[in-house]
Write a structure and sequence with these properties.
By secondary structure, the protein is an alpha+beta fold. The chain has a domain of about 190 residues. Helix content is about 15%, strand content about 35%. The strands form 3 sheets. Strands 4, 5, 6, 7, 8, 9, 10 and 11 form an 8-stranded antiparallel sheet that branches. It has a two-stranded parallel sheet with strand order 1-12. The N and C termini lie far apart (about 90 Å).
């Protein structure tokens, strides 16, 4: 007769009293403070902030034929790059501006793709007129590449995430005017002593507006006043972002430039109606 298999019951033992007491006595916040910064690089080469784009009619996220397509995306939406979502442009986004910089972005001709980000306009660039369209002008390099001025606004986006989240918003082409108009709003804000207030003293609403001319339709950014920043925690985060960008610990990723979004409009100095 075969022997019956004997099944041993597994008995879970309760933790020893001293182990439970030790676990209860651990102060998580103190432990995290002790290891503050561990495993995190503050080097600029290891840190980038994602971009936010204004979706145009040729943006890949708005074209069903493209792999980048996001369901429901359309011209005039706002797209946080790298995410499978867009925000309504008429509703807009609430942001706190933290840092501002300018650069020149180099592209290969005929929408060939991003090449390089220059801190200033390359000295060898020449302003040339398109022989097929006298209204269209562009700064061209000797190799045929095009360079375009870009004004970059680093912001904290409010209300879209669980906490204020940093992004870089590049404005170029017709949106150079949008950037300058927004900067004018900022310059009107004063401290209690009558000095110009820091950019992060106030929040703003960024919405998108439709524009049209004889060359087509497109969308532009529009900034409007929101309110003074009263939350000390949010203000401290805005100051941290400002210092990190000013000190070079944080940057916007150069390869985040999208040639089919609003960062690749025609960029003619002094002309506001040039579009892609």
């Amino acid at each position: 007769m075969a022997k019956k298999a004997v099944t041993k019951a597994v008995v879970k033992t309760a933790p020893k009293p001293q182990q439970a007491v030790a676990k209860a006595n651990v102060n998580v916040d103190m432990l995290l403070d002790q290891y503050a910064g561990a495993g995190v690089s503050t080097d600029a080469s290891d840190n980038t902030i994602p971009f936010i784009y204004l979706v145009q009619s040729l943006s890949p996220v708005a074209l069903k034929s493209r792999s980048e397509y996001i369901k429901g995306a359309e011209a005039g939406n706002i797209w946080p790059r790298g995410e499978k979502q867009v925000w309504d442009g008429e509703e807009g986004i609430r942001v706190i501006p933290c840092y501002f910089s300018k650069c020149w972005v180099e592209w290969m001709p005929n929408r060939g793709g991003f090449v390089e980000r220059h801190e200033t306009k390359p000295s060898q660039a020449e302003l040339r007129t398109d022989p097929k369209d006298p209204k269209k002008k562009a700064w061209e390099m000797p190799n045929g590449n095009v360079v375009q001025e870009s004004r970059e606004h680093t912001v904290l986006v409010l209300d879209k995430y669980d906490h204020p989240t940093p992004f870089v918003i590049p404005m170029t082409g017709t949106n150079l005017k949008s950037s300058k108009d927004w900067m004018t709003l900022m310059n009107r804000k004063l401290t209690s002593k009558g000095d110009i207030a820091p950019a992060f003293a106030y929040s703003y609403n960024l919405t998108t507006i439709a524009r049209t001319n004889d060359r087509g339709d497109w969308y532009m950014w529009e900034a409007s006043d929101d309110e003074k920043v009263e939350d000390a925690t949010v203000l401290q985060e805005a100051i941290r972002i400002y210092k990190a960008f000013k000190g070079g610990q944080l940057t916007g990723a150069a390869d985040n430039y999208d040639m089919d979004s609003d960062a690749h409009e025609d960029n003619t100095e002094g002309e506001e109606n040039e579009i892609a």
